[in-house]
């Protein structure tokens, strides 16, 4: 028989094992707050899954907003390399969010009905961070401010984002600063209004794509934007599929038409000229 196995002691390699008066992993991440933020309102086993799915999604969306806000500022200042990294990270965040739907889809309609009434009128439709992401990306709709009127600071923040330039607005302004002829009235449009595709913007992007070597930074910016929208569309599609699988065509808890409403959102195109030009090259 061999020698008795001696359990490994990390302290022997210098690992800190005592944290009295020192900051620990749990302290840094405030895990006492994060891990006690789940408060199911029913005795249903699957409500914990539902809560954690949505809480973690909101954490990822917080990071997406952090990256998108910084990317917008970088594009506005013409500092594109950091913007590329931030947009790439945002796209990967939505890839992560896509994977989360796979976990939620393990919940069956029967299991969801055991706690659905406990949700009251709460719905993902009311996520103010998701609304902020849409506004930053350029999908402006003033009607979507109304569900947040009961929280003035949130409503004010979203109103500001709705009225400010979007990521795409800043990319178009950069096209103009780079010498491309963009219609003046398009540049001066009311940024609170829903975005409408513009021929001068399309023509500018076509010129960029026809000579990538000459316009490489703008070409790369365009592809980073398309990459983000690609993953964002996948997230929307997976949302629709998951909701249809779990509740079918019932109305949503927040009063929307559920799957029908979500399918309508699939038709929204954030950066229309960047998609349209592909048929013209």
Automatic annotation (TrEMBL):
Primary role: Heme-dependent dioxygenase that catalyzes the oxidative cleavage of the L-tryptophan (L-Trp) pyrrole ring and converts L-tryptophan to N-formyl-L-kynurenine. Catalyzes the oxidative cleavage of the indole moiety.
Keywords: Dioxygenase, Heme, Iron, Metal-binding, Oxidoreductase, Tryptophan catabolism
Organism encoding this protein: Roseibium aggregatum
Positions that bind heme: 239
UniProt EC number: 1.13.11.11
Record bears the keyword 4Fe-4S: no
Name of the gene this protein is made from: kynA
Database matches in InterPro entries: Trp/Indoleamine_2_3_dOase-like (IPR037217), Trp_2-3-dOase_bac (IPR017485), Trp_2_3_dOase (IPR004981)
Keyword ATP-binding appears in the UniProt entry: no
Cofactor binding note of this UniProt entry: Binds 1 heme group per subunit.
GO BP term (any one): L-tryptophan catabolic process to acetyl-CoA
Pathway named in the protein's UniProt entry: Amino-acid degradation; L-tryptophan degradation via kynurenine pathway; L-kynurenine from L-tryptophan: step 1/2
Subunit composition and interactions: Homotetramer.
Residue numbers binding substrate: 50-54, 112, 116, 253
GO MF terms held by the record: heme binding; L-tryptophan 2,3-dioxygenase activity; metal ion binding
The protein's name: Tryptophan 2,3-dioxygenase
């Amino acid at each position: 028989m061999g020698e008795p196995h001696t359990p490994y002691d990390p302290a022997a390699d210098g690992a800190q094992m005592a944290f009295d008066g020192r900051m620990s992993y749990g302290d840094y991440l405030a895990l006492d707050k994060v891990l006690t933020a789940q408060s199911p309102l029913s005795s249903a086993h699957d409500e914990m899954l539902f809560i954690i799915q949505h809480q973690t999604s909101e954490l990822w969306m917080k990071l997406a907003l952090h990256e998108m806000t910084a990317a917008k500022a970088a594009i506005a200042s013409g500092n594109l390399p950091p913007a590329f990294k931030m947009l790439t990270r945002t796209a990967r965040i939505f890839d992560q969010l896509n994977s989360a739907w796979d976990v939620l889809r393990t919940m069956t309609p029967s299991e969801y009905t055991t706690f659905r009434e406990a949700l009251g009128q709460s719905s993902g439709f009311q996520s103010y961070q998701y609304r902020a992401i849409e506004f930053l990306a350029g999908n402006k709709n003033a009607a979507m401010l109304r569900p947040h009127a009961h929280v003035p600071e949130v409503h004010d923040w979203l109103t500001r984002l709705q009225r400010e330039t979007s990521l795409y607005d800043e990319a178009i302004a950069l096209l103009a600063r780079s010498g491309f002829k963009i219609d003046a009235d398009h540049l001066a449009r009311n940024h609170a209004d829903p975005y409408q595709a513009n021929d001068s913007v399309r023509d500018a992007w076509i010129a960029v794509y026809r000579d990538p070597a000459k316009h490489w930074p703008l070409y790369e910016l365009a592809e980073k934007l398309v990459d983000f929208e690609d993953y964002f569309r996948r997230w929307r599609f997976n949302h629709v599929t998951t909701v249809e699988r779990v509740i079918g065509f019932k109305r949503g808890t927040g009063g929307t038409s559920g799957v029908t409403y979500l399918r309508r959102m699939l038709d929204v195109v954030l950066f229309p000229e960047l998609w349209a030009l592909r048929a013209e090259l």
